[in-house]
Structure formats: C-alpha cells, structure tokens
Specification:
Rossmann fold; alpha/beta; two-stranded antiparallel sheet; 9 strands; 7 helices; binds S-adenosyl-L-homocysteine
Length: about 220
C-alpha cells in the first residue's frame, strides 16, 4: 500500500500543494500555482531522491545535469507570461519537469535536449504522465528549431555566454525569451521581449547559476 503510494501520481499531494502555495501567487488566476500543485516532480527525478522532490532545491538527474529548484522553475515560467494559446520552445529538456509545467500553461511545447539518455528518460516519464502536447527533439537547442518557428515564448534552461541569435530570430512579435546568460560560473537571468515593431527589449530578472549550454551558440563541450 505504501509502495503503491510512493510510486503513484497521487503521492506527495500535500507537500506538492504546500510548495505550489509558497512559490506562486494567484496573480495569473492561479494557473501557475495549479500547474506546480499538479505535476508530480517526484516522478521526474531519480527514485533515490524522491523524498527531496518538494524541497526548493536543484537535484542531480544523471549525465552531470540537474533539475532546477522549483522556485527557479516558477520564476522563469511566470516571466514567460503564458495565457494558454502559446507555442513554447524549451532549450534543455533535462528531466522533463519544466516541459510538463509549460505543457499545462501553453498549447504546445517543443523541447530540445542534446543528451540522448536524458531525452529518452524524459520522453518515457512524460508519456507515463499522459503529457501529450510536448514534443522532444534531440539536438543543439542553441540553434532553435526553424521548422517550428516562430515561437510565442522561448525558455532556455542552460547557461550560455549570450542570448543565441537564432533564438532571437525565432521569437515571434510580442514574444518573450527567458534564460540565464553570462560566464560559466554565474549568469544573469534575462528576459528579452520582441516588440510588435520588431525591436528587442531586454530586462534583468536576477542572478543565477545553471549548467552549461553547450553548442554552436553556447560553450564548447
Ligand atoms: N529544464 C530542465 C533543466 C535541465 S538542465 C528540467 O526541467 O529538468 C539543462 C539541460 O540542458 C541539460 O539536460 C543539458 O543536457 C541541456 N543542454 C545543454 N546544452 C544544450 C543544447 N545546446 N541544446 C539542448 N540541450 C542542451
């Protein structure tokens, strides 16, 4: 019975709700809070770490990568200002957790991961959760995905030296891009808004440290 609880989507309901209440306001009608209260983070991380799933900490997910702390996921997601109709590009699928959150707040999520093992594990986990509006591609997300552009929102979840130019090109009018850019040791969390008349307006949201964005418009492996 306990075993069944631990494995299921219904487990950890209370800690998950508490986490959601702590991290998201009701400003957006409670949509982000509901997404955080619904997506079972414990099923997207290594089994041995499940007890840590609803603490506000980053956790290792294998292949030297980490799942961001829920507070960081909440802040970055809120900064995208999703209303429900958007097509979102995520660079860095990792565990699939951020993609599952975006999937509840937008219409379609295109997520790119460079490491095959992580991409495959995330796909399996999202299928198990019945998340049907996320497509995962293996490749260099710093190049974006011209075939699916323009995007209403772009979320970069790995830290690069600068905002990749192809991602700016693939952002639609009125679109928002959020991501960490700076040195390998420390980054600024930046939001870039593409105005209707085609200008790019940049805002500093905070300071952070992410794993490396590796690729053509990122760091060298
Ligand atoms: N959003 C993820 C966070 C994963 S950490 C989550 O919710 O778990 C960042 C991920 O970006 C890592 O999995 C890393 O392999 C991946 N990554 C780094 N550079 C990349 C690139 N150029 N294209 C695609 N993925 C990349």
């Amino acid at each position: 019975m306990f075993q069944h609880q631990v494995a299921g989507q219904g487990a950890y309901l209370r800690p998950r709700r508490r986490m959601a209440e702590r991290l998201a306001s009701a400003d957006d009608g409670g949509r982000l809070r509901d997404a955080l209260a619904t997506v079972p983070r414990h099923l997207l991380i290594p089994e041995a770490l499940r007890g840590e799933a609803y603490r506000d900490v980053a956790l290792p997910i294998g292949d030297g990568q980490t799942i961001s702390a829920p507070g960081v996921v909440a802040a970055m997601t809120a900064a995208l200002e999703l209303r429900g109709h958007e097509t979102v590009l995520e660079v860095g699928t990792g565990s699939g957790y951020q993609a599952a959150i975006l999937a509840r707040l937008a219409s379609r999520v295109v997520s790119i991961e460079r490491l095959p093992g992580l991409a495959a594990r995330a796909r399996t986990a999202l299928d198990r959760l019945g998340v049907a509006n996320v497509v995962i591609y293996l490749g260099d997300g710093s190049l974006g995905r011209p075939a699916d552009a323009p995007f209403d929102a772009i979320l970069v979840t790995a830290g690069g030296p600068a905002v990749p130019a192809p991602l700016l090109d693939q952002l639609g009018p009125g679109g928002r891009l959020v991501g960490p850019f700076g040195s390998r040791e420390a980054q600024r969390l930046i939001r870039v808004r593409r105005t209707r008349d085609g200008r790019y307006v940049r805002e500093l949201l905070g300071h952070c440290r992410f794993v490396d964005l590796i690729g053509t418009h990122g760091w060298v492996d």
